[in-house]
Amino acid sequence: MRSFLVIRRDNIGDLVCTTPLFAVLKTRFPDARLCALVNTYNRAVLDGNPLIDAVYALPSHEEKRPGQNLRARLAENMAALSRLRKERFECVIQASRSTRRKDKVLGYLAGCRHYLTRCHDPDTGHEVVRTLSVLNGIGLYPQPAAPCVYPDPTAVARTRALLERSPAGPAPTAIHLSARSPEKRWPLERYLEFLQKAVALGGRFVVLWSPGPKSQPGHPGDDDRAATLSKELVGLPVTFFRTDMVADLMAVLAASSNLIACDGGHCHLAAALRVPVLGLYCNRFINDWRPWGGCIGSWARRAFRKSPWTRF
After folding, report:
1. Could you tell me which CATH class the domain 153-311 is placed in?
2. Which fold has domain 3-138?
3. Residue 91 near residue 115 (C-beta atoms within 8 A)
4. Nearest-angstrom CA–CA distance, 170 and 280
5. What pLDDT digit, counting tens, does each position of 156-188 carry?
């Protein structure tokens, strides 16, 4: 085949788990044009990826800009679809779950000779493996490789300079406070207790979080939790680093020695950057969504306040 369009328009972690699919396609079809259709929110995950020829992005429902009416939104989407149709893709691959009907509609509107989607979504198995299963439809059964992302080297160097208090200082450990749903979040008092004890042992840390208020649509922000924790840690070697863009998050993770965090896209980004991850997961998510390829340990529990930890 001469050209592919891969559609993955959901969360950051989902798109990171799709990067092995691009590697398989480029290996099997080295001369094919390989493009991606993603959200404007997560497109930075694919920035700098040498395997991808072009990235198209459409805003998701949560990304609606203030003051933008329905007519303007439709016009923007139709213009993007028109550019996609001009590519005349030979094959469109819906890498997301087969139940995502909006992605399927976009794939057909983009125009193509062949359309691939997952035949079924198994209840078990990691998302990297499930995503690669879409290639079974063209007779490919690849072994899963490690995800890869490519942060801007200049941004990484700038961030590393901000984090290092002295030229010889070690890279800090990153702590991420946020998770999309309440059941995935570690209690703030546990972060406080851990950081106080770890700093006393000589550790250096950078605290990250999802910016914005708790009422933020799509992904609730943790500005309030970060402010509370910052007040409790005044005077300690703990840096609070706000990441307004996905590119900022990638840069600070690349400049960190390791990551301790709950389930979220940040864990997948760190693993793709080969940064060791200590993941804190709910039991029902760990097999499907643990960091692939960069995890030094994962602990899980049914609910963070109710049951003992289990190591995986």
Report:
1. alpha beta
2. Rossmann fold (3.40.50)
3. yes
4. 24
5. 999 998 888 644 467 899 999 998 888 788 889
